[in-house]
Amino acid sequence: MTERRTARRYDLSLPVLVRLPINREPGSHNGQTRDISTRGVYFIMTKDMAPGTELDFTLTLPAEITRGTEVFVRAHGRVVRVDKRQDDEHESVGIAAVIERYDIIRGKTA
Fold first, then answer.
1. What CA–CA distances, in Å, run from 41 to 26, 74, 76, 109, 110?
2. Per residue in 71-103, is it b (16+ CB within 10 Å) or e — as a string?
3. Does the model's pTM come out above 0.85?
4. Residue 3 CB partners (closer than 8 Å, separation 6+)
5. By the 8 A CB rule, do 72 and 107 touch?
6. Greatest CA separation found in the chain?
7. Handedness of CA 90, 32, 35, 48 (dihedral sign)
8. What are the backbone angles phi and psi of residue 101, rounded to the nearest 5°?
9. Is 19 in contact with 42 (CB distance < 8 Å)?
10. Eight-class DSSP state of 10
11. Which pLDDT belongs to residue 62?
């Protein structure tokens, strides 16, 4: 099988806050990234989504990673794959999403 990815992937476990477009569903859902690149993200959460779903999400890069202040990445994307996952105690969903646009917001220095 040939590698189809065009952007380097980084194995990062970061908290992610996911929101669906405001007119579809109020509120947000918490998750955890497994890996991320400049073009896509894979995260685990309990909320099921369908491929093609548009979503907004925010990642927080801690100061330890950025070597300065924490950085927020606000992104808009679309779900391209959904993996149902089951372990001994929990059912979760793996979401692969393509990033269509993003903004980087630097936190304030202490």
1. 22, 12, 11, 27, 29
2. bebebbbebeeeeeeeeeeeebbebbbebeeee
3. no
4. none
5. yes
6. 48
7. positive
8. -160, 155
9. no
10. B
11. 86
Give tens-digit pLDDT for 65-108: 888 889 999 999 999 999 998 776 778 999 999 999 999 998 76
CA distance 41 to 35: 6
Among 83, 66, 67, residue whose Cα is nearest residue 31: 83
Name residue, tokens 């993200």. Answer: 41
If you search the block for the tokens 């685990």, which residue do you land on?
44
DSSP secondary structure of 57-96: EEEEE-HHHHTSS-EEEEEEEEEEEEEEEE-SS-EEEEEE
Return the amino acid letter for 105: I
Name the amino acid, one letter, at 10. Answer: Y
Instruction: Look at residues 45, 46, 36, 47 and name the one whose alpha carbon lies nearest to residue 75.
Output: 36
How far is it, in rounded angstroms, from Cα 73 to Cα 65? 13
Tokens of residue 80, six digits: 């391209």
What pLDDT score was predicted for residue 78? 96
